[in-house]
Amino acid sequence: MSERVPLDPYVFGSTQRCYGCGPHNAAGLRLRFEREGDEVVTRFTPAEGLEGPPNVFHGGLQATLVDEVAGWACVGLLGRMGFTTSLEVRYIRPVKINVEVEARGRIAARAGHIVTVDVRLVQAKKTTLMGTVRYMLPDAEKAAGYLGGPVPDAWRWMFEDGPGDAGEP
Question: What is the pTM (predicted TM-score) of this model?
Fold first, then answer.
């Protein structure tokens, strides 16, 4: 088993309000992530109030969990922030409320500034969902256009190409 390395929950700043990973978003999931070998992992116990059908974690919130772990795979494995361009999920079995679920994301492919991340949700040692998320990794100028203003200085490193950045992972 690979060593687990916690990823900094404040990489986007202490005041960021992300619904999935914002450390101080009282209405959010407040997910924490770890790098484990070639994967990024988070564990989450869906609470009552997050249901779709009774006792089942809402499917749209499962998709949010998938998008979050995939986004953090870009940050934790590539040192880059991306913008979601597509998200596909295949629900295999229900995710139960009040039972921990583990989400794992790994880089599956890379073509230039497009990254494909494969994600798997597991609960009670059974796969509950398989997903594929694609991200575009923009430079700071393009990111500023998406954000509607300049990229925060603390984020700039996540929009810079590094060695081999245009190739495969």
Answer: 0.93
